[in-house]
Specification:
The chain is built from nine helices and seven strands; from the N terminus they run βαβαβαβαβααβαααβ. The chain is an alpha/beta fold and about 240 residues long. Helix 1 packs across helix 9, helix 3 runs parallel beside helix 4 and helix 4 runs parallel beside helix 6 (about 150-170). The structure holds NADP nicotinamide-adenine-dinucleotide phosphate. The site of NADP nicotinamide-adenine-dinucleotide phosphate (NAP) has 31 residues, from helix 1, strand 2 and helix 7. NADP nicotinamide-adenine-dinucleotide phosphate binds near residues 9, 184, 185 and 188.
Amino acid sequence: MQKVALVTGASRGIGHAIAAELSSEGWAVCINYFTHTQEAETLAEQLCQKGHAAIAVQADVSDRAQVSRMVRLCEQQLGPVELLVNNAGISTAGLFQDVDDAGWDRMLAVNLTGARNACMEVLPHMISEKRGCIVNISSIWGLRGASCEVAYACTKAAIVGLTRSLALELAPSGIRVNCVAPGCIDTDMVKMLGDETRSMLIEQTPMGRLGTPEDIAHAVSYFASEKASFVTGQVLAADGGFIV
Ligand code: NAP
């Protein structure tokens, strides 16, 4: 039986690349999405056509009941989750004082509570098996702070705290928890900042380019692999040298 990975926010961008890479490495993949049904289902079909088990499941990660339903569906159709990748995320740009209560709450609900919800739903099985792996997606902005993305940066810093604390709590249960902090990656999230900001980010990246979603998928794949069997609580910045 194939090992099962659940990747949140896998309809587009980084999550899409992570799901594809894990699938090519032999994982059965549960592709979570929120609004982009077609993209998620197309990815699942493509992976199935290559002979790999994959399903697409809609759930808003901020809603515990929806996450619970998704994990149960995954267990029924693929098997229990052995690898959870908390990738789903949203971002907005604007001054701190211009973010209203609803915007602040939504950012925390998706980027932080979403990861917590998924952990809560997969951990009972992982703990009972004394085996499992969680990879959280933070951001360089969570490591160094970000003007005009304060709420986003707060959630991404919290993801680092979640990673380190959970890693300590779960190490005796045989579960590893690590984190990838992407730099500026060529996805819709960066495109929506506009061409001028995009060019500025390229200039600020020592390697002189945006990262690809696959650059991040490779880092996730390492943490998920046996090669990282003694690695937990770590944050790997995959950022072309941005925060060196
Ligand atoms: P993206 O292209 O905007 O894709 C975001 C993904 O998250 C989509 O699949 C989206 O699903 C999903 N999503 C959003 N809200 C969700 C919700 N409530 N429930 C479930 N899924 C939800 O973003 P990306 O650039 O690939 O970013 C992926 C992760 O990397 C995020 O955590 C982001 O913060 C982090 N990151 C990105 C960069 C970057 O430069 N791109 C840098 C650092 C960190 P639908 O499309 O189906 O709604």
